[in-house]
Model the fold of this input.
Amino acid sequence: QVQLVESGGGTVRPGGSLRLSCVASGFSFRDYGMNWIRQAPGKGLEWVSHIGRNGGGTFYASSVRDRFTISMDKAKKTLYLQMNRLTPWDTAVYYCVKASGYGLYDYWGQGTQVTVSS
Done:
């Protein structure tokens, strides 16, 4: 079955960096777009970034553009999110989410907590 397992979260000071990873299994990783979506405490879900199938095309929310970079290693079936110049407003649970191919999200990871605090 499809599994998405995130890691790499933690606590970091403002201005710091973290790299999130998401190991995928149970589907043909290169054939689907992938996303990072986050949920801050007490807030709704916020889409963060998307990478197209086979690694083609990357897109970012305006709040993270120029600070975050999404990428994938197809051989390792792993999705990454490099996060630089973190701010307290980036504090959230970050989810790795598979796109269904029909503009929908069909599988979610368990999430990894990112806390930015001095």
